[in-house]
What does this fold into?
Amino acid sequence: MGETPVVVAASRAPLDSDPELIRAVPLKHYGRWVGAVVTILIAALVVRLFVVTPNINWPKVGSYFTTKQILLGLELTIILTIVGMVIGVVLGVVIAVMHLSVNPVLRTISWVFIWIFRGTPLLIQILFWFNIALILPSVGIGIPFTDWWVSSNTNTLVTAFVAAAIALGLNEAAYMSEIVRAGIQVIDPGQTEAGLAVGMKKRLMFRVVILPQAMRAIIPPTGNELIGLLKNTSLVSVIAAQELLTKAQNIYARNLLVVELLLVAAIWYLLVTSLLMWGQYYVERHFARGSTNRPLPPTPFQKLRMRFRRGFPEKTRATDQPGPALSQADVREAKGSAA
Amino acid sequence: MTLMVEAQRVCKSFGRNQVLKGINMQVPEGSVVVLLGPSGSGKSTFLRAVNHLENIDAGRLFVDGELVGYREKGGVLYEMRDKDVCHQRSEIGMVFQSFNLFPHMTALQNVTVAPILVKHEPAEAAKAEGHALLTRVGLGEKADSYPRQLSGGQQQRVAIARALAMKPRLMLFDEPTSALDPELVGEVLEVMKNLARAGMTMIVVTHEMGFAREVADAVVFMDGGYVVEAGSPQEVLVNPKEVRTQDFLSKVL
It folds into this structure.
């Protein structure tokens, strides 16, 4: 074998004869068909169990879906989610930067913060803030060594809403700080050097060079956190803050439509979550700019519009000739919305 | 003759590993110096020290007559505030081996971000200037491209334009062509040659002997943290006196 000389041959194909395009018979995926049939059967069973059943009064679900009490609860749930997330993100970024700081004091503070607020159950934190008056009967601010002093009874200051917002916000900040830290640490140190080398101060460099790039890694887990927070707001029912689940519970305590009202709440949570997922898709696109060497793929909405404009071309297969190329306008539109 | 860079017995260690063992160097304004040497010889560290991306342990380092990173008062050195360090850096341009362009910004944004946010130039003026700089490095058409849509050579030319946008008095090049495919090296060297002809003071770490011979006013050969030999390209590259220089050149050429 070793004695046989290796012959390498390479040549250019003659220009006049294009090789025939491959038209192969596609693989048959029998497994998929079996799987689809089984899935449809199971789905039918579930539908029968939940929809075509005398045990759930669906018209009642419909009628309670938009009652005032439920909508008020939904409003508080959304407000708590937003307040909690704003506190969580802002404080989370600060804690993350402190954690990565060269300053040992800041590093220690951030470590202790994360240790406490991530290490104790959220339920305890909510109850703790609600009962803060037991250890701190009144809070006040003043200027030391002067008579100027304003104080207030803690119980009037820390309402169920305030306790809920503080507890959710601080707990969220502990988790967010770790997410942000992970995002920052992914960035190549060369980026920091390039930022410093053009004369940026550390803070400016962090804001315009590091953070926008870290966002790409930060957003997907933050979407998780936001959806988790939305659902965690239901925990504040323990301090009788009137959010969505508490409202639903109040109603079924009176009329005993337990499953119906839980379904009302669950469907609302699902709707808001869907809305958040939709928003996340576009936020992710925004921060994905420059991440590949080609324009971003069109959004589902853009695809739909292109389809309408082209008048539903025949379904193209991988083995067919490439379909009609995107027009310049389509590409520009896809690029424009990516920017 | 004013000195743009003056190093007096500069030393630097990373832990127990001493990478600079007393470097003396004088770079007159408008001259081009090529630093040569095997990897680990300390040339990149020296370049980074000039920009205060590394602080030095001993000796003195001056850029444009000013001590880098410190202020000396009554024989005592005081660490400079962040703000003053940034001001010093803003007058020194640096080009990295791995380009380090900001990937989330277009070529034009890469070039204009520092003039707008550091020097507070009006955005319109900075953009016009940015376009002019990109044109100067042959990339006027690519202003709206993102770095990942550009070839390595194009990215490095954008990086040079980004550094020039701050109107630096000194340009540092840290192996600017080492990460490039061979056929892309020429376009970057061409931009650097033009810059040298325009009178820019440059310190260049490179293995491009052709560039050194053609453009450099002086070549400094470093090894093991020392300056082994320094002189004109003719002296160092053609008739090296030191054995270590001869040895290195025989491997590179």
